[in-house]
Amino acid sequence: MFxxxxxxxxxxxxIQTTDAxxxxxxxxxxxxxxxxxxxxxxLSKKADRRTPDESARVVHAVRMARRVVRDRVAxxxxxxxxxxRFAARRGGYxxxxxxxxxxxxxAPMSLLExxxxxxxxxxxxxxxxxxxxxxxxxxxxxxxxxxxSKAAAAxxxxxxxxxxxxxxxxxxxxxxxx
Length: 178
Hints:
single chain; mainly alpha; CATH 3.90.1030.10; 2 domains; three-stranded antiparallel β-sheet; 6 helices; about 10% strand
């Protein structure tokens, strides 16, 4: 059953199941994705360019993944699409979102999904145009004004606190004198 759930997760990238099944499936899916991710750098090479040791590592990783996921299509998608997507990530490939109760038996249901690709977007190229620097300088005085106003507000509050402390101290002295 869990093999089929992991295969469905890898194929569809999102499945709806009970909380208990989602937690166990997550454990197996994360382990399987890690096996594929560890050989991602070797998979980027052409098969004829790999050393015998690298080829053995790839075969071992595929076999380990096939122990959990018995669907060939899901395993090929795992090694071709999913593993390269998570190459820079060191775990936490899935997330569980609780979605309420099942209508028939009120079992707690969850949505188990692969997290979206968080690869950094291409930054816009900087130009040698002098006008590009002007908006950044215009924002700086606003930030300084905000910090100055916060500092002024803190100074206003500080004397009030010291005045309250001095009043309580004088009350204590008068009580101890009596």
